[in-house]
């Protein structure tokens, strides 16, 4: 029997038939397809329909002297069922991920307007008061905060004295400063006796918007910086 142009190629005598299931799987991964075509290709029901058509074509064109046995047919049906199940699982997980992103954004909306501390040295200005913070790995006998311009010029310094280990905040009175406050920075130095200690500068800012990217909650700060939720050191 000669197969017509719309049917699958005839199986050669003596060869096993798993090529049909393989062809059905390959069809679901055809590159370069977008939009409605890609959706039709990856749809589990459509893939199963294509498989059944290929299987019927193979049965119609098999070698009468070497027909497809029951074990081969059962194997092919098991393969397509496995592929279909995986595709359905992937689609379910994609829908769950989209719902999780939406839920994160809804919950994150409650953070809009809240102040947070993130790692950084930008000085937050509220009127004539500059604010910032820092983390100390261990207790310090002396801590100094320097206020600087964006170019690194020191404008003022504050001696905060001895400080315990942990997180601290500070305020700087800018009423005596007549220059532009945009871009002001601060630097924290800490010491324990004659030895220097690690001090992590923390910048204060407000959350102005929330969104989701790659399954992660993204916060937009008032200073224009985008951060992940895990980058928040403190929520005020």
TrEMBL record:
InterPro entries per the UniProt record, alphabetical: FlgD (IPR005648), FlgD/Vpr_Ig-like (IPR025965), FLgD_Tudor (IPR025963)
Keyword rRNA-binding among record annotations: no
Keyword Oxidoreductase: no
Domain of life the protein comes from: Bacteria
FlgD Tudor-like domain sequence ranges: 104-232
Keywords, in A-Z order: Bacterial flagellum biogenesis, Cell projection, Cilium, Flagellum
Any coiled-coil regions, as ranges: none
UniProt-listed GO biological process terms: bacterial-type flagellum organization
Function of the protein: Required for flagellar hook formation. May act as a scaffolding protein.
Family the UniProt entry places it in: Belongs to the FlgD family.
Name of protein: Basal-body rod modification protein FlgD
Organism of this sequence: Verminephrobacter eiseniae (strain EF01-2)
Lineage, top ranks: Bacteria, Pseudomonadati, Pseudomonadota, Betaproteobacteria, Burkholderiales
